[in-house]
Amino acid sequence: xxxxxxxxxxxxxxxxxxxxxxxxxxxxxxxxxxxxxxxxxxxxxxxxxxxxxxxxxxxxxxxxxxxxxxxxxxxxxxxxxxxxxxxxxxxxxxxxxxxxxxxxxxxxxxxxxxxxxxxxxxxxxxxxxxxxxxxxxxxxxxxxxxxxxxxxxxxxxxxxxxxxxxxxxxxxxxxxxxxxxxxxxxxxxxxxxxxxxxxxxxxxxxxxxxxxxxxxxxxxxxxxxxxxxxxxxxxxxxxxxxxxxxxxxxxxxxxxxxxxxxxxxxxxxxxxxxxxxxxxxxxxxxxxxxxxxxxxxxxxxxxxxxxxxxxxxxxxxxxxxxxxxxxxxxxxxxxxxxxxxxxxxxxxxxxxxxxxxxxxxxxxxxxxxxxxxxxxxxxxxxxxxxxxxxxxxxxxxxxxxxxxxxxxxxxxxxxxxxxxxxxxxxxxxxxxxxxxxxxxxxxxxxxxxxxxxxxxxxxxxxxxxxxxxxxxxxxxxxxxxxxxxxxxxxxxxxx
Length: 495
Fold this sequence. Notes:
With about 500 residues, this protein is mainly beta. The protein is about 5% helix and about 40% strand.
């Protein structure tokens, strides 16, 4: 059967009773996080905390980065500033079941260096999927739908609000502005946002069959379109050049309305494009906020599951292409994240129901995949409900929601090691040619070791080791290492 998603009717004028009614139906918003402001704009009431730096361990070493109570319905927003620091804004439940937004800053080495709250006091409703984008003067901007209280006032209008901070994220303000005029944004089924080249914010939200978006913080009318069939969820938005693209998960009752969809919304409205294979007939698998990325060097890409009722595998689709590439080792995925990487590369990350988190980086053309990295999962946690990845540096930073909060780890791109021959007779003196690659590209300067024997790859990514005859059959392990990469291994059989 198709996954059943909610249908909510949100009135444009809210009373206390109607808000409580909406919250009782919308379990996501009932547990939503909130961030509050003073009437003149907010500054954080909580002081910035600077925990002792926790250095990144090997992949699979997880650090909890959130505070407060969590919920399985929450998504986090990620943004890396020019100093290499990763910023994460996440929802959390405050005392009294009100909403709050938390912020964590993670250093280049993986250490948690800053934690604070985005807004001063809890709100009655805050977006379960806030988005973090570039802010003024190189700073931060979080975009979220919400409602401060049920009493009249600008921040109780239910709009798509915005809070800003300097690049450090050390203090937050809530200007009296919103990215849109709709008073239905507090009921968002999955908020999306980006910025234009000049820093102007663009934000969108789905509600039932309607997707509404707005450019800038002015009071000009919103724009919107209706999807064919109900409903649209889990929006994502990116900018590629001067074009803004929007993606959503559709839960329609026909093949044409069910699956993952992408559409250009600016500077002109383009056609709705369905990701190939994103539904099996009228059934498909939602995997959280749609994994969407604008590749450095051009091209918009989406990652999604094929197959139903379990994921046959993740596909990476260059939007507009007739086919999508299969991501190796991704069968059984339940959540997916996608990010641009350096020099045209992309990072794809996913979790499954074991739970286990994995990640892989492509080549610069985004046509081949490197070695899949197994990152494990936070200890003792049984489910990953949401996942995001940020890979604009040489590593991939992965953030997951396990229901009790948000956790972070880092991944290094993996080396692939090949050996020829990989099996030989023990009585023969044998020279083995080793090849080290990263997503198909030769890696020079890699050290290959087999016991006490070693060699270093040339610019062509190859080196050789000669093995003397052995007295008995054995198995050997070859390992390739290079700074900035996770090691690659290959088993050798001496028979």
